[in-house]
């Protein structure tokens, strides 16, 4: 029989074992937010082409994702998974366009916080449907297809953006900054995906969770001070608190929907094995 002391020691050792993963996650979020500020420094130029910059960053990113995940190898992907991933690629391409335009016009703080606001709304809307939990390897293979499809969908828009920009009176801001280009590829697209995937799998920390928002908020404050931006600390804290409350509520609803969906999939006699704790989702 396991004593309460042994149980507490096991939980303590488990949390201590997760500390390196948490540190890696914090570093990954910081580098990603740093890349956003570097991207903003380039896109804030009057003649900078937002869609063309994003497309140029997505081309090597999609190639690296395909090389790392090799979605054509291993167990064949079913026809029920590939078409939704391609459709998701079209939605992702539209998201990149709107997010890039918002970053250029509104700045990095609003663009980053808009991601968390959208994530909270996405989780709330997902409670209306069955939440599907894919294996991590399968999710990564599908993500490689999604990013590749988004790059393909962005190609004609980027070419149109280039043609319109070349015929205008302003000169096109080329070439891009090497740090903004490499930072967006390595940290803004690739590293943050794997870091968030590990955090979701091992730490049960989803993107819409308050802990994720708290880490990102601290990184934003550091970047705003370093880059000497026009920043209201009080307003940022108030908005983050409101968003954190909504994020906490959405995490609970996401957990409840996940639990109901898992019970329905496994049957009334089966248990949910390895599911996240409700407290871990926050």
From TrEMBL:
Keywords: Membrane, Transmembrane, Transmembrane helix. The chain crosses the membrane at residues 21-40, 46-68, 80-99, 111-132, 144-164, 176-195, 233-252. It comes from the Eukaryota. Coiled coil: none annotated. This is EamA domain-containing protein. It comes from Hevea brasiliensis.
């Amino acid at each position: 029989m396991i004593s309460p002391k042994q149980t507490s020691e096991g939980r303590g050792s488990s949390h201590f074992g997760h500390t390196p993963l948490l540190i890696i996650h914090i570093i990954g979020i910081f580098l990603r937010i740093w890349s956003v500020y570097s991207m903003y420094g380039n896109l804030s130029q009057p003649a900078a082409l937002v869609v063309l910059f994003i497309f140029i960053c997505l081309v090597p990113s999609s190639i690296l994702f395909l090389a790392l995940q090799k979605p054509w190898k291993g167990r064949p992907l079913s026809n029920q998974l590939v078409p939704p991933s391609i459709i998701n690629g079209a939605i992702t391409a539209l998201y990149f366009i709107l997010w890039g335009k918002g970053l250029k016009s509104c700045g990095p703080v609003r663009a980053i916080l808009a991601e968390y606001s959208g994530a909270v709304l996405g989780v709330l809307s997902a409670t209306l449907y069955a939440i599907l939990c894919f294996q991590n390897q399968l999710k990564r293979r599908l993500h490689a297809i999604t990013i590749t499809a988004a790059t393909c969908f962005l190609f004609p828009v980027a070419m149109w953006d280039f043609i319109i920009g070349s015929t205008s009176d302003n000169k096109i801001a080329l070439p891009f900054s090497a740090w903004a280009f490499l930072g967006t590829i390595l940290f803004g697209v690739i590293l943050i995906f794997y870091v968030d995937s590990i955090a979701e799998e091992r730490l049960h920390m989803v993107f819409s969770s308050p802990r994720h928002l708290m880490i990102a908020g601290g990184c934003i404050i550091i970047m705003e001070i370093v880059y000497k931006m026009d920043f209201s600390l009080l307003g940022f804290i108030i908005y983050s608190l409101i968003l954190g409350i909504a994020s906490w509520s959405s995490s609970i609803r996401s957990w409840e929907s996940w639990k109901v969906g898992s019970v329905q999939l496994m049957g009334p006699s089966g248990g949910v094995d390895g599911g996240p704790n409700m407290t871990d989702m926050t």
